[in-house]
Records
---
Amino acid sequence: MKIGIPKDGRFGDFGGKYIPETLAPAIEDLENNYLKIRNDLTFKKELNKFLAEYAGRPTPLYLAKNLTKKIGGAKIYLKREDLLHGGAHKINNTLGQALLAKRMGKKRIIAETGAGQHGVATAMACACLDLKAEIYMGYVDTERQKQNVFRMELLGAKVHSVKSGSQTLKDAINEAMRDWITNVNSTYYLLGSAVGPHPYPLMVRDFQSVIGNEIKKQMKKIPDTVIACVGGGSNAIGTFYPLIDSKAEIIGIEAGGKGLNTLHHSAPLAAGTKGVLHGMMTYLMQDAQGQIQETHSISAGLDYPGVGPEHSYLKDKKRVKYKAITDDEVIDAFLILTRTEGIIPALESAHAIAYAMKIAKKMKKTQSIVVTLSGRGDKDIGIVQEYMKKNVKNKRKI
Amino acid sequence: MSRIKEKFSELKSKKEKALVSYIMVGYPSESATLSAIRGLVKGGADIIELGFPFSDPIADGPVIQKASTGSLNNGIKIEKFFKLVKKIRSETNIPLILMTYTNILYKQGYQKFIKTAKNAGIDGLILPDMAIEESKGYLLAAKKQKMDTIFLVSPNTQKNRLLKIAKATSGFLYMVAVFGTTGIQTKIHQYTIDALKSTKRTVKNVPVGVGFGISNEKDVKKYVSVGADAVIVGSANIKIMENTPKSKLEGTVFRFTKKLKHQTK
């Protein structure tokens, strides 16, 4: 399966650039500049230096022995993106795009953020590269991720709390796009997930592919199964893409929220339909009228009604399986990993851990699973505490 | 000839420019929509643009965003919307344009949606997030139904692209006046005037209208004087509808529209 650079910005039916005309020259300019630096060795060298010395790459691949023993089946390896500067994989992409923005002569950077991880990673890259950052974040998310708001502010970024619509990631993207339309000449929009109009899905996939490339080097043989969580899908596409031609079974895990049989989830691949949002054609959570539905997930970073177009393509091509994990299962996995390995995962990443635990026991001991641990969970401990107060069942496990 | 084309040729013979008036259907209420439309028609609006709400209107500023949410909360759905359009069509022969976002059409299927719209009395469509590159299926379906497709261009649209977009456009070409979303503007920029003049020089196959941030007689007068074939007023109508009691709505909209229309003669 060869994908490469999508023709006309499309992965099969998916992707494209459904954008207001004001953005067309900016998108074209971005595409031209990106394709130029994509194979530019000087750029690669500069980025790799930042990734190694500033962000902390390569990240370890850790065999979670205690977890493997507890589950009793396939070996579970964790790709430790949680150990990166900022505590998540997001810095892989923000460094790449901020360097590109700098080359393009842009001084003002805007970004959206859900859980705040991309916002923090943007603020860090901008502080480091002397760029001005403004971050859009849904009001609901600013409330549930207060610490990250303050972190961004400490790093010198301005945070705009978005009070339109569902006040989460989707609305933060709307507002960032409106800002971009208004300030198109001076501003670089640093999108954080593998979503949006072409060339963003390609660019984010390329910058995140460092995850999968390292996994390939670090595993002696190709793993039997690779798992990552999918919101917009940036850590997942970065994990999957370099392994797409391999024999590995690849599984993306969406946020099942309170269950796929309820309206409270964020699983467009598992339960959505095709549509157009944020400049791309992809699977969406929408009603029969084409209105985008409000989503739910315990993890702010997965609380998004769309998904990267390349994931939609990989689903239709049946190369990647997409499954959902509920909030309850996430908390269980969060607690088990924390206790058995002393690693506190982000709630987003705990979705992938939960599914690995489910299937590992059905697999042979000689088999292996690699799970991308996309971020650390310090930002989530308040949410977990809250959840446990309300759910006595889980409290007993402590 | 389409109703929109007919309207422009009628205006041309009268040496007038077109006043295009936008409202969001179902906001603040269905009955307010009907009262406002009566006011617009009596006040001399040449074309009416009917907004259909979308949950994520990225090209719209705060006023239309709020109207969009309000309309959805008032229960505006496709079936109800077209029922209202039919009612409007039974009262007036004015050209009606439907403005919404791509996903609303895509979800129903371009063919099906456009056929329903045509049957209800809609003459043209505006989709601010439908880029020319993605428009093949949409254009085919519109052509089949003889539905006008009004594309948007921006002051930063380059000549080659402008020609490509104009070629796919029927009814009129919609030039966005500002770098920004609907409704927000303080003054008329020189770059807009320059862009309008150069767009007019380049585009010969369709009239060129200007919209976004146009809210008063002075704006209308200025754009007409520098060559706009049509002037589109939206957020200003919605603000009036929000601030006027229903009993006075038709009259207030009538007077506002009449003043604006006067500047296009």
---
Amino acid sequence: MTIRCRLSITRTDFALDVDLSLPLKGVTAVFGPSGSGKTTFLRALAGLENNKGYIKVGDVIWQDEQHFVPTHKRSIGYVFQEASLFEHLNAKDNIEYGFKRAIDVDQSVMQRAIKLLQIEHLLDRRASQLSGGERQRVAIARALSANPSMLLMDEPLASLGDKHKKEILPFLELLHGELEIPMIYVSHSIDEVAHLADHLILLDEGRVVGNGEISEMLTRLDMSLSHGERAASIIEAKVLEHDDNYNLTVIDFSCGRFFVPRKQLPIGCDVRLRVEARDVSLTTQRQEETSILNILPAIVDEIVDEGDAQVMVRLKAGNDLLLSCITKKSAELLKLQIGSEIYAQIKSVALL
Amino acid sequence: MVCDMLNEFDLSALIVTLKLASVSTLILLVIGTPLAWWLSNSKWKLKSLVEALIALPLILPPTVLGFYLLISLGPNGPIGGAMQWLGAQPLAFTFAGLVIGSVIYSMPFVVQPLQNAFASMGSRPMEVAATLRATPIDRFFTVAVPLARTGFVTAAVLGFAHTVGEFGVVLMIGGSIPGETQVLSIAIYDHVEALEYGNAHWLAGGLLLVSFIMLVVVYSLNRRFSLLQRSGQ
């Protein structure tokens, strides 16, 4: 099941021209610099832009030359950048607004949304009495209470300060785990994308420059995301066990095990790891006497120059992909070439 | 006590005035609301023509408006003639004629506050409502109208007060038929002409006070609302 869209929107100072498919499951991030057309794309999906185009969601056509399903008949939930609560209603009435108009939905959908976002204690407050983070939580619950079959989010964290961002992000991760419906998440923050997305669409100046799995997209050396200071790869893994002697948590993934300082996570739970390219060094022989615990066998997949002195190396480790940023000199000393079998030494791993 | 001060004619003038102002305000709200909504949302190039037309009574001498109304509502005018042809009375010198005049004359006082209220709301609340399954009519009444409530109060009070205060138009098209078209402002004029300054004082002072109170209500409501909005940010 996919969403197919062909959209062509021309404004005086901007044009969006996309033709793409995206999966109708999981979290798809639409990522790009500001002005790249992310928000316009999302608004067009919701029917908020008065534009020509073709949109087909699953088997249902939302828009083509003859038809245009208006926004209120598209089964979506939309979270705007600013919470945009109805100022004349309290939090509860805001949440009930969509619930009352939804078709075939019982109270439990709304109760679940309220519980998920932990806003029981805020229900009687007016919109003006809520903090920025609380407003956005109410707005998300409001969107979910209409029982949408797809959740569209337009940079829900962008208008918040760092403190409130940290407050909301865990809720979004929770939604990622709990919701059965697909989510399309517009963002210009690679951190949010790395946390949440399963699938990634890269937009630049109104055009699609990349569309694929998040782990693949982050490590594609022909794309900008795999370069620069923050270049990193993402690995899906599971908590295997806790090591009580050394207070470590052992995490299992396709190519072996990671040891990280102990985290309060149940055994068997899914985790997402982020490994930065600058934290991965390479050796041809497995080092025995080293302080680095996480050493994995890997195969060099691709090598691309990174500035004048460095190269970015893409590695295959099991089914997963890693990036490593090393100097050109080291690459020569190690005689790195595509297909070389080497060991990746990973200095640090972040649990997302 | 009041009855001593107001004679029978004054009392009927008061009733005619209140009736005229109420009926006109009601009609103005009914036709002004969709008009203001359209003006605040339309991107039509010739929109300013309509806006200028609605604002005309703000600057036009009421006698000009009254003159044209008299011509068109009278038995030889297009509207009055048509009425007569249909077997009805021409509208000049009738209460219905006054209502038509008042609606045109007070139109900008109702449409402009509503238009401003709708415009300041922006398109976002209506977009949110649409994503929450509300049909256009539904979201207009459940979102736009409540959010523009101070605009509605302002429009109603200004429309009412302005109709109460009209003189030139009424003079031209209403004449001064007691109980039918004689309103307070005309009654004051008649009193002064007849040198009945005592009666004129009561009516004039009363109108002054009531108008002042109505404007205080409008301004304090607007202030309270803008304070509320600011505290909400």
---
Amino acid sequence: MKEDSKDIESATVSVSVEGQPDNKTRRYDRQLRLWAASGQSALENSRILVISGSATSTSILKNLVLPGIGHFTILDHTKVTPEDAGNNFFLEGPSSIGKSRAEEAVRLLLELNESVDGRADQRDIAEVLENDPSYITSFTLVIAHNLHPTLLGRLSNLLWSDSLNPSLIVVNSAGFLAEFTIQFHEHAIIESHTETAPSLRIDKPFPALYDYATNLDFTKMDPTDHGHVPYVIVLVQLLDKWKKEHGGNPPKTYDEKKAFKASILAMKHKIDEENFDEAEAQAYRCWSETTVPSQIAKLFDEPKLASLTPDSPHFFHLLVALKKFAAQPPHVLPLSSSLPDMKANTESYIHLQKLYKKRAEEEKAEFKTLLQESVPDELVDTFVKNAHGLRLLKGKKWSDFDANPSVLAEKLPINPREASAHLALAALRAVIVKHQGKPTTETLTEEALALLPSGTELSDDFSNAVGELVRAPTADLPNTSAFLGGLVAQEAIKMITKQYEPINGCCVIDLIDSWTVIGLTGGIATGKSTVSSLLQSKYNIPVVDADLLAREVVEPGTPALRRIVKTFGSEVLLTDGSGALDRKKLGSIIFNDEKKRKQLNAIVHPAVRWGMFWGVVKCWLRGERICVLDVPLLIESKLWRYVWGVLLVYLPQETQLQRLMSRDKSSEQDAMSRINSQLPLQQKLDYADYVIQNDGTLEELEAKLSRSVERIRRDAGWTWPSWVPPIGLLSALWVLAYRNLWFQVPVKQPKMF
Amino acid sequence: MADSSANTQDWEGRYHHIDQILDTPGPRTDEAFMAGDGVKNFLRNQAKILVIGAGGLGCEILANLALTGFKDIHVIDMDTIDISNLNRQFLFRPKDVGQPKATVAAEFIMKRVPGVKVTPYFGKIQDKDDDYYLQFNLIICGLDSVEARRWINATLVNMVDPENPESLKPLIDGGTEGFKGQARVILPTITSCYECSLDMLNKPTAFPICTIANTPRLPEHCIEWASVLEWPRVHGDKKMDTDDPEHIGWLYNTAAKRAKEFNIEGVTWSLTQGVVKNIIPAIASTNAIIAASCCNEAFKIATSSAAYLNNYFMLIGTEGVYSYTFEHEKRKDCPVCGGEALDLSVKPDTTVEQLIEILTENQIIQIKKPSLSAGTKHLYLQAPPQLEEATRPNLEKKLSEFVPENGEITVTSTTLPMSLSLRIAYA
């Protein structure tokens, strides 16, 4: 929040140079702390068209009028019915009945904010689409709630026909279920407000920082100053020393990292010198190389960059300059001028802050020389400051979401709840188009099946969703509309201000189980199996899969299974008479009980280890150069000691939870404790030699994996065949440790506000 | 119209949307659901619901409840309307600035939604006793204060009488910050309560006093210096009013001067106000989502028309829309609803005063002014003054003089209706 509050002030300072801010700033104070004056000004220049004056539509508009959009129009040719008057807060009960719904709603919405302009348009959308399409395209953003699917298709076509046309938010709801989609060609974000902090470049210190840090003599310091040297300085100095003693390399192995950390604490004169504790906690910055973050590097491949004209949006010209900047050594983004707080006295902190600021100014000046078109200074500042959080979203046409039946079918088993709800809502639209009257389970199921490849099976989740739609096919419930009103307005604000990150895809909402899920857009990588199969198929690297082994060693008739039954009782066996292990049952027993987990590990791990050993020996005998051990709990099981290197593929916690839950159909609580039972991220980073964050699409994962494999092949060389089994063999491996690196749970601290 | 008696205001078709839910069960509806007139009559003529807070969440909650068909709504709020409320608290207009929130909100709802009775109370929740809270079927909180939440939570847990099922009042709690928020359902004594999850609270940013006094680095340090050290030094006993622009102005100027002295940049009016008032960013849209979630749960609990939230919903809207629904688990050693003693390990030479400090700072305890006793012995009592004086000498004594290894201490607080049992281990 600190960062944000600074932003707003620097931006609103023109409004009130000294003393108390003016009335407008006071009125908007709580939101200016989020999107600052620049965001506010974008809102005030926006013109929004909302199609229909339904309860959901007015709920959305309420949350846009309050923060002060420039203008809105409600396009609605209907009169207020008694039903409308009962569920819409922006109608005045029975006294509104029979009047124009657009006029009544606009009148009451305008009471919320005198600086907003609003208009009621009583034409029929069908007629406007036919005769006056340029009217629709003259807005900044168009929002449509429960619009007739045929008209929606035409509206979507119109807005998609030109990339300069407004974005479209499509909202559909019935009873407790809802979904919405944003249709846009492209959405560039400079101020994403990412929670990832920019690099401090401790591993690649700029000259002024390097000189200052390495010339500081700790032995000649007075005791108070000694305990107040900022951790950045401590680390730069120690890393420099370490590199000189280790052939220019940073700490690499676990033992080296441990030794490095010990050398930090050895500098302490007194137990309470917290700056050294802080340095130890931040030591990972020494071995995580500062590079261009992969998300940003990906933007450099944007094809558009090759064919820019002076008229192209500033964003792309800035991006080209950034690409050039990063192409020069030391291959990093321009330095950020902001320094986080750290244990230090005033003098040393302010001095360090000045070093960073000065350098940031220099690099910004350098960046400007690389710009080929003139861009306003203010925008350059914002761009450079937020370079580590840039985003470029590529959108889809609304009607393309369900265009491919097999994609939809693939989602059903992976994300059964949301895919089913989405499918049910799509079926409801189809029923409406065909005027089939009140939908029934049969008609909805029929329509849903028509959207899928023949032979696709529907699950209970689908029956649950369809049952709710049959129950309340036309209900615009006050709570659902208020919930949607908030969500859609949030996305609209993000689209208009170009700050924060809007959804890219379809957001499905179920207010019985209370969840919202985005998905159904691109191929979401399924993780472990994807990585494993990519390694085998694309790179021809043999994989010894510990998960597979863990299953094999407890198959009916194995010694390990006999010991498990002896320890946990026969209730951990499936009741179908197969004598096989009920893994879900065993899972829920051990993941909530540390003692039992240890008992199980004591049985399974030795068996798996033996199996892996033989797997590796077989690879060696075949003359393979590299072999991968796919081990879920590599670090926990201490197997990492025997491998050549560790590649960590990890998921951000939220993605991981979703995938874990949809894969195993386990409850959130189970999934959470399963994650909790593993080592937190920070600890694990120490063991990793290569890291891949698997948070994007399949294509992104493939690209990252390809880069890593290249590096690993280079680094690994041809060491393997020279080793002699058995001990040397294990040391000559590198290991894919999938799933063993989780964020500390919860990664986004759930807060109570 | 099914129930003609009290609903002269109900016009044909008024509840067309809601009735689609109330007339038919869905696939996930509990068997106890009485579709049709039974449930409608309860919702519209019998249910009595309390809303705590008429601010950002409160305004939204009141509107949703009224449209849903609750007709007997009570609302408590101790605040008056400020201009900075108007960007989201949509029942208030510029002319209402300075008026009590509860009263203005109640009047607005009654005017806009015919036939709904909203009874406001302009005051503190602590003014009301058990009898007051016992009259409601459900309570929804839209508060911005941790202390108030802890108080109502503890009060409702203590109110549960196993002999009387009516004494269990479901509590639905919502909260927001910027684009993020959460809603939860608490069934006192049955599910995890507010106190059970106290460790999930963000640690309040507290700056060490020596940093503020001697080695400031951030603009915030200068502002804290102005408000914590300079204000009492210059103004003596005069109370600082963070809503008074003159007071904020003085703090701003004082902090700015100090910042200049130390070459620190970034002290501004807005930041000064943000720090001293602990301002949390707030927008209409997030409040709408969370309030809707709270009211949706209230509706489902009151009508059994669908399964209700079990028990925690979290929403993060900064990157896309990310929500997370999970069951927060009850803590057996929760000081409010747990019943089991909490194990606390301290150094053998810990004094009573040091223990108090530990209790204040511990993430899962966070009791501001604890009174301690061991069996019949009072270790330290915060009040009344005579007893405080009598027990004050104990502060410097070692805890082990009063409590043996594995001995228990009872901790009570003047601000919270709860008592916590601690089992002490010396290590």
---
Amino acid sequence: MDSGTGEGSTSFTDDYETFISTTDVDLLKRAWRNEKAAPEILQYEAALVHRIKEQIELAEQNVEASEADGEDPLTMSLYQMDLDRTQFLLRSYLRVRLQKIEKYIFHILKTDESLNRLSDEEQTFAASCGDDLRAHLKETVLSKLPTDYNSELKQSAASEEDDMVPAPRLDSFVICKARQYISGLDFEPEYSHEITEMERDLLTFVCYKFIKKPLENGKIDLV
Amino acid sequence: MYARKAYELVKELAQCEKGHLQQFNEDLFNQVIDQCTQHFLELQALFRKKQEENVAMETRNEDHYGALVHHLALLRNKRCLMAYVYNRTETIRSLSWKVGFELFELPEEIQEKLSLPEKNYFGKHSAALQTYMADVGIDLNVDMVPPKDPYIKVRVLDDMGEGILLSNKTANLARHSMHFLKRTDAEQYIARGLMEELIG
């Protein structure tokens, strides 16, 4: 999903009003909510984060400039509060992502799909995070175990798959709301029996993997 | 019963309140490791016996199942050991978010509970986090709760010395004194238990 244009292509035609009144902060709030509620890591909103960072910088300059001009303290405090809230959103968004990377580090490092969703900085972080954890596990446990049993990914050399990697549970349930009417075509064909359609703005309690695709296409928000 | 010791190890972990750490149980841990070595020796002995008796490896005789039991016991032990260490690292990682990046910032009580490799791991992981924050140019360790008001009232709980810089102003933060500070300035001290927020 391309972050910058996703908003325009979906709601431009049917709801021009919401389109022009949607600010980057709203978009960030949405990305943050989705990220918080989704069990797995989602696509990094590179363009959005970049814009927000610029806006924060601009707002900081404005606050400083009006402070120097002797602007009314109450107005100043309101500006500051608004700025603080945006900063909190951004920090929390990045934080939630890092914590997910920490939690599912081995899974993310071995699946390209997840790895490609990270920003460059996050990939660097993931690489060193994985190395550190592997080194620590090796030092405390694995180096003391017999050969054939000393992998951090497999239980023993006899396991065919990596069966010791904590992975996000895609079959956990989430609460979501469709941004528009979603027909059967928007879902993965393999789940066509479980889920057929979703009304707009209707709160739904559903298994995450069923709505993974429309979520990635920006048609659903998690709550 | 095989793998009972490992079970005790995990039980110790489970009984501990979430986010808290107990002393790394070196003694029990090493006992489980020894058991693993023992299982492996017996496993190999059984395989050798089969070879000497010229029985094909696939034959399902009593030695095969004996070896299987040792193999499974070993796996169980390994999983328990890994769970013990892995879950502790999760708590350790949360420390660098909640308390601070440097080992000396952690209260004594917590430092005592960590084993030497765990201390090293904490240091390395914190360094990775700091590198990330430097790359992005955003400090992620402030603003842990959504801000209601940019300013909060705090009470200083410990002698922090003079001359601490808060938003380019020095402040005299004597013990028990109360201050009205920017939330972002105060948060790091609250996390380290040097200040408390006054609510209401």
